[in-house]
Design goal:
Elements lengths: L18 H15 L26 H10 L2
Length: about 70
């Protein structure tokens, strides 16, 4: 193959986001708006990487933190 006809390699594609991913990210970002910070527990809404989290809902601990911020 001559240099002119070589094809460029495409970068790997990111898999499309799912509705579940969108819910996880929305929960995470809304958590920030009410004062929650990241944590390292994958089973929580505020996990460091929202799309990789196992939950799209706030845990009881996260709800308690919010209530503590606003009481």
């Amino acid at each position: 193959m001559s240099p002119r006809t070589r094809r460029r390699r495409r970068p790997p594609r990111t898999p499309p986001a799912t509705t579940a991913d969108a819910r996880k990210v929305a929960c995470h970002e809304l958590g920030h708006t009410v004062g929650l910070r990241h944590n390292s527990s994958k089973g929580t809404c505020m996990y460091q990487a929202p799309a990789a989290a196992d939950s799209a809902t706030l845990t009881s601990t996260e709800r308690s933190e919010i209530n503590g911020n606003y009481s």
